[in-house]
Design brief:
Elements (H helix, E strand, L loop, with lengths): L2 E5 L2 E4 L4 E8 L3 E11 L6 E6 L5 E3 L7 E6 L4 E6 L8 E11 L2 E6 L3 E6 L1
Parallel strand pairs: 2-11
Antiparallel strand pairs: 1-3, 3-8, 4-5, 4-9, 5-6, 7-8, 9-10, 9-11
């Protein structure tokens, strides 16, 4: 069984920074694409940033230039460095990963971590 465990959310003032972490745990697995999504109050969940195992990175237009996704394959961990935060970045942030387990590619979600940006 694979689990994604997130950490690093919190309350920050506009213009500040936060760093989110998401670690995949379990046995005998390989993480493929790892990504961050977010869901604000009353809106649909949206993709924030993705990082494929091959090294391709994509960002939502709303965060490009302010957020940086990175990953450590040895630790099966993905990070999201969030700088120049704005109140509209307030949301629950979710880690998502495609993970090979026993020859099958499965999709997993973390439990979510709250990020609140005050004006």
């Amino acid at each position: 069984q694979v689990q994604l465990v997130e950490s690093g959310g919190g309350l920050v003032q506009a213009g500040g920074s936060l760093r989110l972490s998401c670690a995949a745990s379990g046995s005998s697995f390989t993480a493929n694409t790892m990504a961050w999504y977010r869901q604000g109050s009353g809106v649909q969940r949206e993709s924030v940033a993705t990082f494929t195992r091959g090294g391709s990175i994509n960002y939502a237009d709303s965060v490009r230039g302010r957020f940086t996704i990175s990953r450590d394959n040895a630790k099966n961990t993905v990070y999201l460095q969030m700088d120049s935060l704005k109140p509209e970045d307030t949301a629950v942030y979710y880690c998502n990963a495609d993970i090979w387990v026993g020859g099958r590619l499965n999709n997993y979600w973390g439990q979510g971590t709250q990020v609140t940006v005050s004006s």
